[in-house]
Amino acid sequence: MSPRPIHREESASIDRRAIQYIRQAADVGLYEIRGLGAKRAVPTFDDLVFLTASASRYPLEGYREKCDTKTILGSRYAKNPVELEIPITIAGMSFGALSANVKEAIGRAATAMGTSTTTGDGGMTVEERQSSTTLVYQCLPSRYGFNPDDLRKADAIEVVIGQGAKPGGGGMLLGQKVSPRVAEMRTLPEGIDQRSACRHPDWTGPDDLRIKIEELREITDWQVPIYVKLGATRVRDDVKLAVKAGADVVVMDGMQGGTAATQQVFIEHTGIPTLAALRQAVEALEDMNVFGEVSLIISGGIRTGADVAKALALGADAVAIGQGVLVALGCNHDSYVLDGRDVDASEDYAELGTAPGFCHHCHTGQCPVGITTQDPVLERRLTPEVGAKRLKNYLQVLNLELTILARACGKSNVHHLEREDLVALTVESAAMAKLPLAGTDWIPGEKP
Amino acid sequence: MTESANGRVMRFDLSAASVREVNQFLHRELPGSGIARVEIHDPDGMHSIAAGMDCAVEIDILGHGGYFVAGMNKLATITVHGNVGWSVAENIMSGSVRVQGHASECAGASGHGGLLVIEGDASSRCGISMKGCDIVVAGSVGHFSAFMAQAGNLVVCGDAGANLGDSLYEATIYVRGKIHGLGADAQEEEMQPADREFVARLLAQAGIDHDAAEFKRIASARTLYHWNADAHQEY
Question: A193 and B227: CB-CB below 8 Å?
């Protein structure tokens, strides 16, 4: 092998990607802001496989024998826990980040599938409350539009401490998306670059969180569950503190979780992968002897029915999906439906300097397919009817795939999936999930 | 329960009843009951007393309260005859809350409407993230008061700690005493006749007697409303 001439050898540290980053920083003088989640490759649920039934286990008939998917969340203290038909929920995404049409579409699809939707950093819209049978109301650091009337209309309350895409950071909504309606709901001047707080205004630290949760329970007369959402960083400690503070449900959002807008450096360089976060969260609940008592929802890069099944097998009670929902609605598609016709969106993507399959320009408000926008012209590109049908189909496929895998493992209830049903295909995923490497009894980091 | 000239009065003793029992009465049985006034005795620093009120009634808390007293108040007129812990009247929507003693941190945090009056001092972050309520503090306020305040008014009759009004939006702050430093993007502006008239009216509503002409006006310079990469965190 002849060595590459030194004058043509690319640097491993200052490679073309690093050069592009440095040049852009030098040209613009401002870090990159973008939407969606981490693009870097990390160990995922794809690195696990099921050991489905054979001679040592017997399977259930794929389309005949019943496989229960009913899911109950938040029965620890709440008088009225959340009861869902499927263990697949919709993650919090704000009106502001998303159009009102999209919020309504999500509500309709979730209701049709018997699952819950979640508000976001902009308060509760009339459309989403009316269209969602089960709606989780977020209590965020910004408190935009937060009020006791909506609090009492909620089926559960989610205290958001962090988000997988930007743990430790606050929300962001650039001026082009702060429309008159968004501005009014958030009590902000129209068109400003909105930066939400990263800490809650009325409490600090886990001891205060306990008192805050009690206040929310007092205001709602202990009727509805309180979720605590965490970005996945120091998972073991954070889950234990949330449990100690009185959470009915812990929502753990891994680093692949999405956002409508934040700094790229946050998205790619903070938090831990969802796979590792789930395992650590389960261990924390087990350490506290509340596994099964405090519900666990995992989110951050969940895309397929296989992801859902593996998450449940590893100990989650349910998953929450954000980016997958957007893609089902049409995010990164090459066309949109307008007045019943497919319309090519390639030129709109090109104007943003991107193309279908690569777009992460949610922050611009110029979403070519009308999802992450407040522009009335763009918003027409996704009607609630079209969006709801597509999203319902997607959720239905996830649920079908989940039950196929559960039946193949011999389970008549998806919540009976267990760690013993899984092995890992890579050393990294084996270590993160604490599962044996396929074909071995070896779990990295554990004594034989 | 007793009758008075102003209607029926309900009495609770928190050494005998729990906060949960009292709050559930206030939320469920009180509205439409004809009870005009509620007395809560022996609060003993308990948290979330009278949180989530949603009807026009007078409530007197006879002693010191803990965190979140009168949280998310709507319509009710609540008086604390003592001091309060963190976040009194947080997210207040309407009605009024009066603290006859001192208030700890984050008083009136993210309040959307209504009036909060503190007759003593308020600690740091008073009026943080406020969204339309009015707060009158007869004494002084601690550092970072009105941090990220979006709308409404904070009137401070004493002094204000450092970083007052940091990252302000459209809320206005009026301070009679010394200001120990303004926060990012906050600036002192000239008091206009409308400001003096407004402060005088709010002071009268709060039952506090000062000359409105003695106050300074602090508002946002609005330089943080849009990204400015060249600011280098020097505002």
Answer: yes
* β B186-189/B151-156 pair status: unpaired
**Can you give the pLDDT at residue A196?**
86
CA nearest to A372, candidates A310, A323, A444: A323
Q: Which residues of A touch B28 (CB under 8 A)?
A: 221
A277 exposure class (CB count in 10 Å sphere: 0-12, 13-18, 19+): buried
Mean per-residue pLDDT, A267-284: 97
What's residue A7's pLDDT?
A: 83
Q: Which strand (E) or helix (H) includes residue A130? A: helix A126-131
The SS3 assignment for A165 reads coil
Length of chain B: 235
Q: Per-residue pLDDT for B234 more than 60?
A: no
Which residues from A are below 8 Å from B66, CB to CB? 211
pTM of the prediction? Answer: 0.95
Sheet with A88-90, side-by-side order of all strands: A88-90, A318-321, A295-299, A249-253, A226-231, A156-160, A134-139, A116-118
**Contact A221/B at CB under 8 A:** yes
With beta carbons under 8 A apart, name residues in chain A contacting B230.
29
- In chain B, % of residues over pLDDT 70: 94
Residues A261, A363: contact at Cβ < 8 Å?
yes
**Number of neighbouring beta carbons within 10 Å of residue A33:** 22
pLDDT in tens, A15-61: 999 999 999 999 888 888 899 999 999 999 999 999 999 888 899 98
CA A403 to chain centre: 21
Picking from B52, B86, B112, the nearest residue to A202 by CB comes out as: B86
Report d(CA A100, CA A384) in Å as an integer: 9
**Phi, psi angles (nearest 5°) of residue A185:** -65, -30
Percent of chain B whose predicted confidence (pLDDT) is above 90: 91
